[in-house]
Amino acid sequence: MNPWESQAMAHNFPSDPSPAVGKNQSTHSRLQSRQDPIIYPGLYAPSGVDIMTVLFSVFARPDPKIELGPVDCSAALTVSNLDLPGSPIIYANEAFAKLTGYTIKEVVGKNSQFLHSPQSKASSQSSLLDQQVAAIQQLDHAAAARDEIQLYITNYKKNGQKFTNLLSMIPIRLPDDETQYSVGFHVAAD
Ligand SMILES: Cc1cc2nc3c(=O)[nH]c(=O)nc-3n(C[C@H](O)[C@H](O)[C@H](O)COP(=O)(O)O)c2cc1C
């Protein structure tokens, strides 16, 4: 076993909040539904975004400057389309929804700048902290230069709670796709 495997095995997960299989719902029937032999494109991607290919493109990028370290499925992720006006989020995962309190539906189609201010307050330049203004400028420059960047930025959850977001923003291209995307990795660092 390599070091990360032993670390993974020793990890203390909080007790599983999901209810045990009910009396009327046998394990057998749950398994049966998973064993359906008809596999069709999109079965595992109802969002339409092939996140495996996105992550592969991140990890196989030619000139990495940021060390992301290991990434597991609990990582809060967004993918934005930099070629569309306003660089909207085209994909956000459940972990991002959990981190920010916004639903996936609420964030897809929006620029991530809704995180700069509490929901009730308009994100005017004057309402931003100096640290935010500096970070936003850095993000702007990095996005324009198609450069990757990692920084701390003060953000707000939907409920108004302030948090320090350790944001890594990585531009990628997907195979057979001219579109320029950017992948955001988000984690509360406080
Ligand atoms: C993939 C991606 C993820 C981003 N994630 C965040 C984020 O979590 N928090 C944040 O404050 N800004 C985030 N941004 C930056 C904002 O969306 C925005 O680009 C930046 O604040 C500059 O916006 P403006 O050029 O519209 O002023 C992200 C940008 C991209 C492309």
Task: Please provide a brief summary of the model.
The chain is an alpha+beta fold. Helix content is 27%, strand content 19%.
Work out the strand percent: 15-25%
What distance lies between the first and last C-alpha atoms, to the nearest angstrom? 32 Å
Share of helical residues: 25-40%
Rg, rounded, reads: 19 Å
Instruction: Say what the CATH topology is.
Output: Beta-Lactamase
Major sheet details: 5 strands, antiparallel
CATH architectural arrangement: 2-Layer Sandwich
Low-confidence stretches: 20-34
Largest sheet, spatial ordering of strands: 2-1-5-4-3
Derived from helix and strand composition plus strand pairing, the structural class reads alpha+beta
Number of helices: 6
When the domains are counted, the total is 1
The top level CATH class name: Alpha Beta
Q: State the shape.
A: globular
Helices and strands, in order, run as HHHEEHHHEEE
- The named CATH superfamily: PAS domain
User: What small ligands are held by the chains?
Assistant: flavin mononucleotide
The total of beta strands comes to: 5
Overall pLDDT metric: 86
Protein name: Vivid PAS protein VVD
Organism: Cordyceps javanica
Region (Disordered): 1-32
Keywords: Chromophore, Flavoprotein, FMN
Structure write-up:
The protein is of the alpha+beta class. The protein has a single domain (38-188), classed as Beta-Lactamase, CATH 3.30.450. It has six helices and five strands, in the order H-H-H-E-E-H-H-H-E-E-E. Strands 2-1-5-4-3 form a five-stranded antiparallel sheet. The model is unreliable at 20-34 (pLDDT under 50).
